[in-house]
């Protein structure tokens, strides 16, 4: 086999490997979609060949309060990301640019909040929220979601600030720009890809949170992750209805990722190769 044939065979094998991996990675999603079109009677008696039905979608989307739960998730997860961006970006800049005592210890302490198990803090928070009136409120969940979203955003965005040369800021200062003008007009556009990717990841983590809304929310605020438990009946599990709830709840993250795909790819790859 000549060199050209070897290259062609290598390309075919690589594409085949990628196709197999894509099927492997997407199979849980495809399986969930299939379950959403099955009736309860077909759930354990059929695999891929069955008579599809829209009854599960009818029950979940039109005969329940699913859209209210969906809106609650949008408000809480979106509000958590907004607060994280407003407070986290300046914090990331400070950790990247300024030198102060125990800076790295503080940075690691912030990161440790992300890795601490939620069950460790949820009980004290439950008691505190009950006393100060934050239980079962939007603000209460948005506030506690900072333990999920802000550490990630601070650490990711800090790396992007560190990759920007200080000479850019010095040049802008020489031109007469104030610090706020430099930050808003020069630095933020430069870290936009990283900020977008970090915000999307923070949104996904906040959207998928289960322990915090389960313990710190009740009937007034009920995100979809907790509302899906309503399809667990006392005598049976409505897998098809749960699959519908899970499928629809996955749409926001997928849609946002597709809309900001250009910035997301640049943000996740930026700084991967240095030197």
| CATH class category name | Mainly Alpha
Q: How many separate domains make up the residues?
A: 1
Count of DSSP H/I helices: 15
CATH structural fold name: MetI-like fold
Q: Separation of termini?
A: 38 Å
CATH architecture: Orthogonal Bundle
Main β-sheet description: none
Q: What does this entry look like structurally?
A:
The chain has 275 residues and is an all-alpha fold. It has a single domain, classed as MetI-like fold. Helices cover 74% and strands 0% of the residues. The chain has 15 helices and no strands. Helix 2 (55-62) packs across helix 13 (239-249). The chain is flat, with a radius of gyration of 23 Å.
Quick structural overview:
This protein has 15 helices and no strands. The protein is an all-alpha fold.
């Amino acid at each position: 086999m000549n060199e050209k044939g070897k290259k062609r065979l290598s390309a075919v094998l690589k594409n085949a490997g990628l196709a197999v991996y894509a099927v492997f990675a997407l199979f849980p999603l495809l399986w969930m979609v299939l379950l959403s079109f099955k009736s309860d009677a077909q759930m354990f008696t059929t695999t891929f060949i069955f008579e599809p039905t829209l009854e599960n979608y009818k029950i979940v989307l039109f005969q329940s309060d699913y859209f209210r739960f969906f809106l609650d998730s949008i408000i809480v997860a979106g509000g958590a990301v907004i607060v994280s961006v407003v407070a986290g970006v300046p914090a990331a800049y400070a950790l990247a640019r300024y030198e102060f005592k125990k800076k790295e210890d503080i940075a690691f302490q912030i990161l440790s909040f992300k890795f601490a198990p939620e069950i460790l803090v949820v009980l004290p928070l439950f008691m505190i929220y009950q006393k100060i009136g934050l239980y079962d409120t939007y603000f209460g969940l948005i506030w506690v979601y900072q333990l999920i979203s802000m550490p990630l955003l601070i650490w990711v965005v800090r790396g992007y600030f560190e990759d920007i040369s200080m000479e850019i800021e010095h040049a802008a200062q020489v031109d007469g720009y104030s610090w706020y003008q430099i930050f808003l007009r020069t630095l933020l556009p430069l870290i936009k890809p990283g900020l977008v990717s970090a915000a999307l990841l923070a949104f996904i983590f906040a959207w998928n949170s289960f322990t915090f809304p389960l313990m710190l929310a009740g009937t007034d605020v009920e995100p979809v992750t907790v509302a899906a438990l309503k399809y667990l009946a006392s005598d049976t599990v409505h897998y098809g209805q749960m699959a519908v709830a899970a499928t629809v709840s996955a749409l926001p993250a997928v849609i946002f990722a597709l809309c900001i795909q250009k910035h997301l790819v640049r943000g996740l790859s930026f700084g991967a190769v240095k030197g």
